[in-house]
Each structure stands twice: as C-alpha cells, then as structure tokens.
# Entry
Amino acid sequence: MNIIVARPELFGLEACRLFLMLAGAFRAPVVGLPTGKTPVPLYETLRERSRLGEISLARFVAPFAIDEYGVGDALHPCANRAFFARYWEAIPNVRPVRQFDPSAAGAAEEARRFAGELDAAGGLDLAVLGIGMNGHLAFNEPGSERTSKARVVELAAESREAAAGCFGDEAPAWGLTLGLKELLGAKRVLLLANGAAKAPIVARALDADVGPECPASFLQEHGDVTVLLDSEAGALLEGPR
Ligand code: PGA
# Structure
C-alpha cells in the first residue's frame, strides 16, 4: 500500500495527479467514482486543468458511480446523480457517469442490472473511493463481507446522518451500492481521505485488523492501493510515512 500525505491545501492537486497517474496504465480506463465532500477538490482540479487544456479525460470511456441513495426521484437534488451533474459532467469532454436508477421498479433487480453493465465493461480498472466515518466503502456498511456484490443496503446511522446534511428530515434509509467484490476487484484503488475527523477511522482501516466491521480494512489485502491523505486525516497513523 502506497500512502501519501499531502498538505491540506494541496489535496486536490495531488488527488488529480494520482488519478491521472493510476489511470495512465489503461488505454480506456473504466473508473469507479465517489461522491461526498472528499472528492470535490479532485473533481474541481480535473475541471480546471481540463478547461485550461492541460489534461483531457476524453479517454475515460466508462465512469461508473459507486453508489446511490434510495430516493424515489432519481433527479432529487441531493441524489448522487445531481452531484455528478455538478462535479463530473462540468469537466470538459467527459462521458456521463453510468449510475444506479433508484427510481427503478425493483431495486434489487436494478442493482443486478448495474453490476451486469460494469461486468460487460470489463470491471473497474481504477476505483476511486472515500471512507465513511464508520469505515464504509461506497455504501458497504460495517458487517459487509468482502464477497458482497452490488445490492440494496440499509444505510447505517452514520450514513443517514451524513445524508441529513442535504436531505434534512427526509434522509433515505436505504441505498444502492457496488459491493466489496466489485470495488476490491478493481485493478487499482485510490482511497482519499481528508480532515481531522477522519483520522481515527483511517488509522483503524489501515493499521488495525482486517474484517467486515471496518470494510475499508479489506484494502490492506488488495495488491495495488494508493492512499492519499491530508496531514490531518493521516495524523494517527502508526510509524513514519
Ligand atoms: P465524505 O463521505 O467524503 O462526505 O466524508 C465519504 C464516504 O462516506 O464515503
């Protein structure tokens, strides 16, 4: 595992550099993309550098969302679909993100459909991931097995709390997520975390025992993981970095 600690103000630039470097091994990378606060500096830097003509994401043919909230209206302004419209699709020359449709008639069938679409694309080359305050990856909440597939999940209290920041009292109780099988099946993983609040869970995930009570700990067993932390999120890691 390659752990990189950046100064907070350089987090976006460094995330952009690593994203391009890790995807650089693939001609037409299939990438898994997260939502949340953490990746915003990455998307903003990708947009800015693309606008300036310094980089191009045109060869990123198959971006896949890694999860979605269980909302009846797929166009809900707090749904991940709205996030990607704002942060990914604002980048010049990108393909639209392929996404779960939470308004589909059967959610379990929708999860299978989406997993099939990813499978047909050859699986993920690069999974970009954040980490939840409870150690989740996408919506693989504590208790998720490493073999778990794309599915409908009940959101943990921490995830509902985070969702309430946008949804208010209407925070969804469920979500759709790629499973740990699809995420850990990515050829490469870029895990991002910033801010002091994430320091304990980052240390738990990277330095402590591997197991379903902290799904992000399974990354310790993946052979090609790069972790980008800002100095605050990395403050509790053991040993020299
Ligand atoms: P955050 O969410 O980036 O908003 O902290 C991360 C996550 O829940 O995976």
Q: What stands out?
A: Helices lie at 11-23, 40-51, 80-87, 107-120, 157-167, 180-184, 199-207. The two ends are 11 Å apart (CA to CA).
